Amino acid sequence: NIAINGLASLNSQKFHILVDGCKKVKMVNMKISAPANSPNTDGIHIQQSSEVTVMNTHIGTGDDSISVGPDHQNLVVVGLLFLLLQGLGVKISDVAYEDIHGTSAA
């Protein structure tokens, strides 16, 4: 069980936050930022984990805002604001989403 509230991450290399092999993670009210021209700066990368929730978070990076690796189950994303338009493609199944802003998707 992990709870993160109010964390700010600025100009991190690679992943700002890596969730790997965790269960029951809740991340709320975070601000993640890197320049648009900074390659490979994923905001949050989640893999081999379950029951991860990301809520009310602002993400603007040079790569994926949220990336999901192998073997992840039950990801809930609510109330995100994507500040840059990189990395907004989604190719996963069994997705529930609501209140997502700043994407070019219809």
TrEMBL record:
<keyword id="KW-0134">Cell wall</keyword>
<dbReference type="GO" id="GO:0004650">
    <property type="term" value="F:polygalacturonase activity"/>
</dbReference>
<dbReference type="InterPro" id="IPR011050">
    <property type="entry name" value="Pectin_lyase_fold/virulence"/>
</dbReference>
<dbReference type="Pfam" id="PF00295">
    <property type="entry name" value="Glyco_hydro_28"/>
</dbReference>
<keyword id="KW-0378">Hydrolase</keyword>
<dbReference type="InterPro" id="IPR012334">
    <property type="entry name" value="Pectin_lyas_fold"/>
</dbReference>
<keyword id="KW-0326">Glycosidase</keyword>
<keyword id="KW-0961">Cell wall biogenesis/degradation</keyword>
<dbReference type="GO" id="GO:0071555">
    <property type="term" value="P:cell wall organization"/>
</dbReference>
<dbReference type="InterPro" id="IPR000743">
    <property type="entry name" value="Glyco_hydro_28"/>
</dbReference>
<dbReference type="GO" id="GO:0005975">
    <property type="term" value="P:carbohydrate metabolic process"/>
</dbReference>
<comment type="similarity">
    <text>Belongs to the glycosyl hydrolase 28 family.</text>
</comment>
<keyword id="KW-0964">Secreted</keyword>
<protein>
    <submittedName>
        <fullName>Uncharacterized protein</fullName>
    </submittedName>
</protein>
